[in-house]
């Protein structure tokens, strides 16, 4: 009987063990997808040959035991000095505006943007300015050779003995350069081109990007060395690589710009040391990249006389007001399907404004071609520019020029009403600085508004009222004009 009992216990033990859930044993090195069996193609990112065997969390290794704190015991927060964490200006005012004053010691900044937007040019200029200020700078490039970077440095005048340059794609070599040179500022261009031999997968993969960024962050924090990482973007404009990369770094900046425009915008999507609603403006040219403290002049035409179909509005890029001129051309169409062409303006927004003009004001636009564009490659994406779009279109349709020195602000509703928009005071202050002395704003914003000195503000309740106000402040010839059906 004892033998039978021991055999039954053995059977139950084997059955219990067989019911134990099996951990996922294979993982994709590109996106981190896991599966219980090997497959040739990842079921998440559809990559071929990227699924490898994975021991799973822990992998049977012993748990981490407690150890003595490496940086000393914990202290009261009031006894910790904050002077060492003060931001140091980079010398580029527009970059400092976005970062919140400059680079904080030990901070890691991720600068992402499309190819050719000017990321490397901007960071090479920042590195040269820091080197001229007596700081030791290490610039590691994995995309170009040192000779190619030297050519760019000659073009933008970014040569200094304190600026050290190296081309490496191996993580161990990059960390060796940091140990050898002990820089005060480190720039890596780019994080997707560096790989570690200790991690499986190609450069730019999920595992490699995580390993490279973790190693650089550890080196930056231990040395109180600010580091700037250049990152690629995907087709939809997001940062390439794992989402953990954006969580690990302290600041994430997006560098934006159109290929056919010299204007570049820098905005922070994450910032542990400053605001995320500031925007920096830069001008990219053959001689380098220059900050634009006053970019509004790029978006306003220099016409000496009033032209039908033009209207000025003020948009907010973060907390920064930018004056933008909208130009419209309305012409008879010989096609049964008239064209609606836009540049710098959302086509769906224009279609809505034209429908409101035709339905609420009786403006005949169904048989007209409408072309609408902004000056200087600016973009009008917020609803505050709706009133300017409507006035520019109706001015071109009626061949009536709006009065010079007039700015229009307001969102147009489907019922034709003019809705309030945020930041009217800041927008009018920017318009007044540029010399505009008359403004049409939503009527609901007039009561609590303190207009700048010398600016005459008129409140409009709907589109028809706005057109009447335009005629009232215009010339005698324009005052008698009305919308023709």
From TrEMBL:
SUPFAM superfamilies: P-loop containing nucleoside triphosphate hydrolases, Ribosomal protein S5 domain 2-like. Residues 369-485 are annotated as: Lon-protease-like. A motif (RadA KNRFG motif) lies at residues 270-274. Pfam families: AAA_25, Zn_ribbon_LapB. GO terms for biological process: recombinational repair. The keyword Protein transport does not apply. Residues 62-76 have a biased composition (Low complexity). Gene3D superfamilies: 3.30.230.10, P-loop containing nucleotide triphosphate hydrolases. Keywords: ATP-binding, DNA damage, DNA repair, DNA-binding, Hydrolase, Metal-binding, Nucleotide-binding, Stress response, Zinc, Zinc-finger. CDD domains: RadA_SMS_N. PROSITE patterns: RECA_2. GO terms for molecular function: ATP binding; ATP-dependent DNA damage sensor activity; damaged DNA binding; hydrolase activity; zinc ion binding. One of its GO terms (cellular component) is cytosol. Residues 56-89 are annotated as: Disordered. Residues 84-233 form the RecA family profile domain. ATP binds at residues 113-120. The middle region has homology to RecA with ATPase motifs including the RadA KNRFG motif, while the C-terminus is homologous to Lon protease. Belongs to the RecA family. RadA subfamily. Plays a role in repairing double-strand DNA breaks, probably involving stabilizing or processing branched DNA or blocked replication forks. DNA-dependent ATPase involved in processing of recombination intermediates, plays a role in repairing DNA breaks. Stimulates the branch migration of RecA-mediated strand transfer reactions, allowing the 3' invading strand to extend heteroduplex DNA faster. Binds ssDNA in the presence of ADP but not other nucleotides, has ATPase activity that is stimulated by ssDNA and various branched DNA structures, but inhibited by SSB. Does not have RecA's homology-searching function. This is DNA repair protein RadA. It comes from Cellulomonas gelida.
């Amino acid at each position: 009987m004892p033998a039978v009992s021991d055999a039954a216990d053995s059977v139950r033990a084997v059955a219990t063990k067989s019911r134990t859930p099996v951990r996922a044993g294979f993982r994709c090195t590109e996106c981190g997808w896991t599966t219980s069996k090997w497959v040739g193609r990842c079921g998440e990112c559809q990559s071929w040959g990227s699924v490898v065997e994975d021991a799973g969390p822990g992998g049977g290794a012993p748990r981490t035991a407690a150890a003595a704190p490496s940086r000393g015991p914990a202290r009261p927060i009031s006894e910790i000095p904050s002077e060492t964490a003060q931001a140091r200006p980079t010398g580029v005012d527009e970059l400092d505006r976005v970062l919140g004053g400059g680079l904080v010691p030990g901070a890691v900044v991720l600068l992402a943007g499309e190819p050719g937007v000017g990321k490397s040019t901007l960071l090479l200029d920042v590195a040269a300015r820091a080197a001229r200020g007596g700081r030791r700078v290490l610039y590691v490039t994995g995309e170009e050779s040192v000779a190619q970077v030297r050519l760019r440095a000659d073009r933008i005048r970014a040569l200094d003995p304190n600026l050290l340059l190296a081309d490496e794609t191996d993580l161990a070599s990059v960390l060796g350069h940091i140990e050898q040179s002990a820089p005060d500022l480190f720039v890596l261009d780019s994080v997707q081109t560096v790989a570690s031999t200790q991690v499986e997968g190609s450069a730019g993969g999920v595992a490699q990007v995580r390993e490279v960024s973790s190693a650089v962050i550890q080196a930056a924090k231990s040395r109180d060395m600010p580091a700037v990482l250049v990152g690629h973007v995907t087709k939809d404009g997001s940062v390439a690589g794992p989402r953990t990369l954006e969580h690990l770094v302290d600041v994430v900046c997006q560098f934006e710009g159109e290929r056919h425009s010299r204007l570049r915008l820098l905005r922070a999507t994450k910032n542990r040391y400053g605001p995320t609603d500031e925007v920096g403006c830069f001008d990219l040219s053959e001689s380098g990249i220059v900050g634009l403290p006053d970019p509004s002049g790029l978006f306003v035409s220099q016409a000496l006389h009033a032209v039908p179909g033009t209207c000025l509005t003020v948009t907010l890029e973060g907390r920064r007001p930018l004056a933008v001129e909208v130009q419209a051309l309305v012409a008879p169409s010989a096609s049964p399907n008239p064209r609606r062409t836009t540049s710098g303006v959302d086509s769906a927004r224009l279609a809505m404004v034209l429908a409101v003009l035709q339905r609420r004001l009786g403006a005949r636009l169904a048989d007209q071609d409408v072309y609408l564009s902004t000056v200087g490659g600016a973009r009008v994406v917020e609803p505050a520019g709706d009133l300017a779009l409507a006035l520019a279109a109706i001015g071109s349709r009626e061949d009536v020029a709006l009065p010079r020195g007039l700015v229009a602000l307001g969102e147009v509703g489907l019922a034709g009403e003019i809705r309030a928009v945020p930041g009217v005071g800041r927008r009018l202050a920017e318009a007044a600085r540029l010399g505009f002395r008359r403004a049409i704003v939503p009527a609901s914003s007039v009561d609590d508004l303190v207009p700048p000195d010398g600016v005459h503000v008129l409140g409009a309740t709907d589109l028809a009222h706005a057109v009447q106000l335009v005629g009232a402040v215009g010339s005698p010839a324009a005052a008698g004009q009305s919308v023709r059906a």
